[in-house]
Amino acid sequence: MNTLSATWEWLTTAANWSGDNGVWRRLGEHLFLTVVCLALSCLIALPVALVLGHLGKGGALAVNISNAGRAVPTFAVLVLLLLSPIGGHGQWPTIIALVLFAVPPLLTNAYVGMRGVDADVVRAARGMGMTGRQMLFGVELPLAMPLILTGVRIAAVQLVATATVAALAGGGGLGRIITAGFNLASTPQVVAGAVLVAVFALLVEGVFEGARRLAPQRGGPG
Amino acid sequence: MRPAGASPRTGHQHARPLAPARCNGRVTVPPDDCLARNEWICGAYLSTRREILWDATLQHIQLTLVSVALGVLIAVPLAVAARRTRWAAGPVLGVTTVLYTIPSLAMFSLLLPVYGLSAALVVAGLVLYSLTLLVRNILAGLRAVPEETRQAARGMGYGPVRLLLAVELPLALPAAMAGLRIATVSAVSLVTIGAIVGHGGLGNLIYSGMNTYFKAQVLTASVLCVIIAVAADLLLLGVQRLLTPWTRENRARAR
């Protein structure tokens, strides 16, 4: 219980929240990394997945890339990028690693969502004389949206986790509070940092869950 | 393996390779091997650090095995309980999902007051992670057992325990094994984060290699991680094929 009260004390000390190494600064970095990399990953993954799904090509690649991504340790990629020539360019190793790990779930879910659209619906749309573009944006994309958003949510949670590990390799974000705590051999700071990271991750998950519930349900069951 | 002219340099384990040093106006040229040039791919690294690599790999496999085995031991009863009692499913899935959302570094850190800087901390964290994947997949497998099959077993006089062990669990195996494969591959990759407490298997080598800018060490350890993950996945796939011969037939027919 001693650690708990010490952790609470760390979290309620105003000095720990302000300044260059303060919680607010780290939280800002973490949020920035998550949002920017999520946007970048969506820009890269979604167009590719939508086109591949529309054409029905490259399925094996889109599905297997997720499994391959799981086998490669985040930490290893971060350190490899850090030691590569990119390593000298500030936050770039972190950003590239984050995007690399956010792209697979986006790609896989969007592709599976596009392929999961009822073939009869697609045929009906073609029968109505829709062009490929109209079918993609007017029929397939709306129907695939739930799975695409699941992919975005998985990617966002993955980004929060990867951004935390980035602190091990010298990146910014809330993980820095944890690594600094380890360096200072301060268990309260380590635990306080971990609590902040966990709450942040759960909040991100919660935001997506809330958005999903608030979103208009179309089409009824199925 | 070792390039000609390279000499094993023990006691230089983590030191950053040196640039040519000038002493008294003379240039002392260090041995011209890939270690001195700090190259990514280095045969001399493999041959001189064989023992360190071997130890780290063993630790890596050990941590993965212990945590996945413990995860299965805990996940099976949880999944069965969630299947049998209606009210248990929601909380079990909810708690394991929350656990899965917590980033790995934070998870290990949260366990620090309980376990200290120990291998038990890494194992505990990995077990908590594997639970989500295992429970979800085992539960999905159990739920997919057709009602008629269970009724037929009951009609043949199977009690609840025998029904579970001889009918439901074997039929849930393909889904459970899929979960086990994902959990194992994830565990192999997450062990590296254990480097923060000094028990990260190959992650320790990556961590020290990062601090000393030792490229060959980082690349070799990373590649070994991926090899372990892929080997474990293939091994489990083989075990799954052996354990569930009926799915193999179905697949052949489906093609």
UniProtKB/TrEMBL annotation, chain A:
Topology relative to the membrane: Multi-pass membrane protein
Keywords, alphabetical: Membrane, Transmembrane, Transmembrane helix, Transport
GO process annotations (BP): glycine betaine transport; transmembrane transport
Family matches, as Pfam families: BPD_transp_1 (PF00528)
Localization (cell): Cell membrane; Membrane
Provenance organism: Streptomyces purpureus
Coiled coil: none
PANTHER family: GLYCINE BETAINE/L-PROLINE TRANSPORT SYSTEM PERMEASE PROTEIN PROW, POSSIBLE OSMOPROTECTANT (GLYCINE BETAINE_CARNITINE_CHOLINE_L-PROLINE) TRANSPORT INTEGRAL MEMBRANE PROTEIN ABC TRANSPORTER PROZ
Listed SUPFAM superfamilies: MetI-like
InterPro entries per record: ABC_transp_perm/SBD, MetI-like, MetI-like_sf
Domain ABC transmembrane type-1 stretches: 27-208
Protein name: Osmoprotectant (Glycine betaine/ carnitine/choline/l-proline) ABC transporter ProZ
Transmembrane regions listed in the UniProt entry: 31-55, 61-83, 95-114, 134-152, 190-208
Family: Belongs to the binding-protein-dependent transport system permease family.
Keyword Cell membrane carried by entry: no
From TrEMBL, chain B:
Transmembrane listed as a keyword: yes
GO BP, sorted A to Z: glycine betaine transport; transmembrane transport
Alphabetized CDD domains for the sequence: TM_PBP2
InterPro entries: ABC_transp_perm/SBD, MetI-like, MetI-like_sf
Occurrences of domain ABC transmembrane type-1 (ranges): 57-236
This protein's record includes keyword Transmembrane helix: yes
UniProt-annotated location(s): Cell membrane; Membrane
Chain ranges passing through the membrane: 61-80, 92-112, 118-139, 186-206, 218-239
Chief location category: membrane
GO cellular component, one term: plasma membrane
Protein topology in the membrane: Multi-pass membrane protein
Coiled coil: none
Keywords: Membrane, Transmembrane, Transmembrane helix, Transport
Signal peptide: none
Family, per entry: Belongs to the binding-protein-dependent transport system permease family.
Name of this protein: ABC transporter permease
